[in-house]
């Protein structure tokens, strides 16, 4: 049986119980000597490993940062979003855990099958609405009496919020989230069967002086095609992978066909405005450069080569003599 790793909070609680006498060390040793049996509830099938749950947590930590940036800019007030927990539970248990009246948004995420649910606590949703309408961001509860205008404004905010999920998931799959349904009663939503395993990402959210939770419910059917990409092995493999030879050749071919601005400088001279205004036919301008000195060849105004002037097939041409070394032009 695999050993269970305790979190730091669990370790602190255990040490505190031992020091206060609530728990006896001898009893712990006795329990260890006895055969341990782990209770498994088949109604709560664990379909995601701890490694995959950590992968989802990393993805949505990035989403939380993107959401914080968007809300701060959109609402012009203090906004903070952070991941509170990532759990896998039956869909029925998730529906029972949220308020009877709340803000629910159902999104499709093509090309993935199924739909995801974003539940936003009314305190947060109304604080957003109040800020957009010019208020101070105070929360009020009127879920049962939302007007069409208020519903439309909220939907637009939530559609922009979910765009951050598209960017956060881009390392796994390119999705195109679309809002399909806006509801306030969770009993009217039956996305999957009650016993279907879903991953619930809970986000601590603060808008001004209001705070609440945003819960993202992702059914197993949505994550099934990309579940193998959630492991640490996949992430490390991607980070350590090197460019393939065919990628290098393709990039080289693109660079070879790129056009650049190239010019040869025959020389420079300085004259006054009066001399310039009186220039006429057959006048000679003396250059500062000696006739035996090499010409400077510029590529996009950067000195790259030295050359000499000449002719090729009765056309003016230059012959490259040498390449300018780094720092030589300075």
From TrEMBL:
PANTHER family: FLAGELLAR MOTOR SWITCH PROTEIN FLIM, YOP PROTEINS TRANSLOCATION PROTEIN Q. It comes from Salirhabdus euzebyi. One of its GO terms (cellular component) is bacterial-type flagellum basal body. Belongs to the FliM family. Residues 254-324 form the Flagellar motor switch protein FliN-like C-terminal domain. Pfam families: FliM (PF02154), FliMN_C (PF01052). CDD domains: FliM (cd17908). It is found in: Bacterial flagellum basal body; Cell membrane. Keywords: Bacterial flagellum, Cell membrane, Cell projection, Chemotaxis, Cilium, Flagellar rotation, Flagellum, Membrane. GO terms for molecular function: cytoskeletal motor activity. It is a peripheral membrane protein. This is Flagellar motor switch protein FliM. SUPFAM superfamilies: CheC-like, Surface presentation of antigens (SPOA). Its main location: other. One of its GO terms (biological process) is bacterial-type flagellum-dependent swarming motility.
């Amino acid at each position: 049986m695999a050993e269970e790793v305790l979190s730091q909070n669990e370790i602190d609680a255990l040490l505190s119980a031992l020091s206060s006498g609530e728990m006896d060390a001898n009893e712990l040793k006795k329990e260890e000597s006895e055969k341990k049996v782990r209770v498994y509830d088949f109604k709560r099938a664990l379909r995601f490993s701890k490694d995959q749950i950590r992968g989802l947590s990393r993805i949505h930590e990035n989403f939380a940062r993107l959401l914080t940036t968007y809300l701060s800019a959109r609402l012009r007030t203090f906004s903070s979003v952070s991941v509170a927990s990532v759990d896998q539970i039956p869909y029925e248990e998730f529906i029972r855990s949220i308020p009877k009246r709340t803000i629910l948004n159902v999104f499709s995420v093509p090309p993935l099958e199924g739909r995801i649910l974003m539940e936003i606590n009314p305190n947060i949703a109304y604080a957003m609405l109040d800020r957009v309408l010019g208020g101070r961001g105070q929360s009020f509860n009127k879920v049962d009496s939302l007007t069409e205008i208020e519903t439309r404004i909220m939907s637009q905010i939530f559609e922009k919020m979910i765009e951050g999920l598209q960017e956060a998931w881009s390392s796994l799959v390119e999705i195109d989230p679309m809002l399909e349904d806006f509801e306030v009663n969770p009993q009217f939503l039956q996305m999957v069967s009650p016993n279907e395993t879903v991953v619930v990402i809970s986000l601590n959210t603060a808008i001004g002086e209001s705070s609440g939770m945003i819960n993202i419910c992702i059914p197993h059917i949505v994550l099934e095609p990309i579940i193998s990409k959630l492991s640490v092995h996949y992430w490390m493999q991607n980070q350590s992978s090197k460019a393939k030879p065919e990628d290098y050749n393709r990039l080289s071919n693109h660079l070879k066909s790129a056009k650049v601005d190239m010019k040869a400088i025959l020389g420079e001279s300085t004259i006054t405005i009066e001399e310039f205004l009186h220039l006429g036919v057959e006048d000679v301008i003396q250059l500062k450069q000696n006739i035996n000195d090499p010409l400077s060849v510029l590529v996009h105004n950067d000195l790259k080569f030295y050359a000499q002037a000449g002719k090729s097939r009765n056309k003016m041409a230059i012959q490259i003599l040498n390449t300018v070394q780094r720092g030589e032009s300075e």
